[in-house]
User: What shape does this take?
Amino acid sequence: MVLLDNSNFILRLEKIANAAKKDSSFTLTFKRYDGHDKPVPRAGRPPLPKPETYMCLIRAQSKSQKISTVVRQEDVPTMMGMYSQFMKSKMDGLKRVKKVKSKAKATKG
Assistant: This one.
């Protein structure tokens, strides 16, 4: 998995979305991240220190490509702005679902 900075993550995510648009899909995962890369220590050992602020770990996966980024608390508004622009630009392939009226509702109204 490749750890990228926030702006490069969005750029690579756009490339993944364009590649997945034709025949596959991609997934995004948001997770609270405390900065620890080590597992929880066993009983009798000192515990890992609590972080002052938590971060957000964002992962994207499509087929064999995996990318990730860590968003710090002060960078959340700018990252979510870039992410919302990405979602607005890439969600153009959705089809509108037609509502089917039931016969009971059609006869009443």
User: Anything to note?
Assistant: The domain at 2-91 is CATH 3.30.720.10 (Signal recognition particle alu RNA binding heterodimer, srp9/1). Residues 6-23 form the longest helix (18 residues).
